[in-house]
Amino acid sequence: MKIFSAEQIREADQFTIQHTPISSSDLMERAAGKCVSWYEDHFTPDHPVYIFCGKGNNGGDGLVMARLLQQHGYTVNTFILQHSNNPSKDHTLKLQQLTDHYPSSIHSIGDLSDFPELPANAVIIDAIFGTGMSRPVEGWLAGIIHRINDHRLQHTIVSVDLPSGMIADESSVHFPVIQAHYTLSFEFYKLAFLLPENAMLTGEVHILPIGLSPEYISNTPTRYHLTDSTIIKTIYRPRTPFANKGTYGHALLIAGSYGKIGAAVLSAKSCLRSGVGLLSCYVPQCGYDIMQISEPCAMCIVDENTHYNTHFHQGMESARYKAIGIGPGLDTQTATAKSLERLLAVWKSPMVIDADALNLLSIYPSLLQEVPKNSILTPHPKEFERLFGSSQNDIDRLELLSREAVSRHLYILLKGRYTAMACPDGSIYFNPTGNPGMATGGSGDVLTGILTGLLAQGYSSKEALLFGVWIHGYAGDLAAAEHSQEAMTAADIINGLGKAFQEGI
């Protein structure tokens, strides 16, 4: 799914109006009608509705909702904020229609003193500002936003299109913004919805289809995308009848150290579950028995050192591995760093770099220059900051993520609720699968195994990244459904991979 800018969304509206038999007024009716249908599924008429409307088209959506909800038996009070003497054309039309049918439900707010008293069971609908916002809300309007937020603990807040005060394509972290419980948006995710800093502002986001032009959507480029099942189905390669284990590649996982052999085991198990043909695991001597017992389907190579890996670079010049994954539980010993340096000097194919291997790159920045092109780096936010520096907000961090991916010709993911995946061509993908239950030790090790296994099977770096993060999150959702987010572990994600392949593709 494409993620369009606020300007592109307005263009999509206009293109739809110009090229399909629908007026802007009717398109507004359609959008508001979708919101009302959603609202009726979630709230009964026992809850009085308080709708706050601006003077633009977002306010127009709110006015249509006010009329339709009253037609459906809801008690509605509509408050129009008098912040402009130039309402939009459709706002004026919808206000007249509401006035014709329900004049006593309409009220005016000219300053903060006009803010109404709300009954205990009221629901607030925020239709003040939409995607046209380009600067912070100020003055008494900011006071209205703060006053609505003061009611957040006692009343449910539903924002239309996006929470008022939020800017769709920029950081709004220090601005007055409505703190919605639900956000009802149209056709596309906004970039702002996918940023961690906005999680407490958007609440649950629901994307409602309103029939915008498929031609515009198909022909308009964008750098931002949300990975969906359509994309995953184009990537996935089903097994062929005459395949053998050599068909699906030989992967090498370099992982583990004393006290952290579990990370290597988790990566090995998930790599095998990803479909790789053969797997070798390189571990220190202390991990040999554990690995052989825990995962007999994997071959085991043992380092000279007892407690951590120091010589995994040896023999790589002639190695026949299709992909290498390195980092889970690796430790950051000096000898390990030297072996990584020697490995990067001879291994020039894409690899997956995670956990302590990332930490070694941050400790020895010169090694980062030697990482093979098209490799996949998998940092969480702190690892990313150690590698590439801090950012003022999530938008700045996205830009930094993309710059590093483009300049270094790497695929870099930034773990989170909507894991961001930056590609060397400048595009950024967000992954929607997964849940907070995956914030548990070992979850990242599982992802490393999946990505390494997909690379070894011949998927390109981009394909492995998009597919691997998707299936990892989907398996996590299955695990949460079975065990709860609180009780699930990284091992449960691995156990969900089989069903994820069956249902998620």
UniProtKB/TrEMBL annotation:
YjeF C-terminal domain residues: 228-504
Binding site for K(+): N58, D126, S164
The keyword Transmembrane belongs to this UniProt entry's keyword annotation: no
Cofactor annotation comment: Binds 1 potassium ion per subunit.
Family annotation (CDD domains): YXKO-related (cd01171)
GO molecular function annotation: ADP-dependent NAD(P)H-hydrate dehydratase activity; ATP binding; metal ion binding; NAD(P)HX epimerase activity
GO biological process: metabolite repair; nicotinamide nucleotide metabolic process
Keywords: ATP-binding, Isomerase, Lyase, Metal-binding, Multifunctional enzyme, NAD, NADP, Nucleotide-binding, Potassium
Oligomeric and partner information: Homotetramer.
Similarity annotation: In the N-terminal section; belongs to the NnrE/AIBP family.
Role of this protein: Bifunctional enzyme that catalyzes the epimerization of the S- and R-forms of NAD(P)HX and the dehydration of the S-form of NAD(P)HX at the expense of ADP, which is converted to AMP. This allows the repair of both epimers of NAD(P)HX, a damaged form of NAD(P)H that is a result of enzymatic or heat-dependent hydration. Catalyzes the dehydration of the S-form of NAD(P)HX at the expense of ADP, which is converted to AMP. Together with NAD(P)HX epimerase, which catalyzes the epimerization of the S- and R-forms, the enzyme allows the repair of both epimers of NAD(P)HX, a damaged form of NAD(P)H that is a result of enzymatic or heat-dependent hydration.
Protein name from the UniProt record: Bifunctional NAD(P)H-hydrate repair enzyme
Organism of derivation: Chitinophaga silvatica
Encoding gene, per UniProt annotation: nnrD
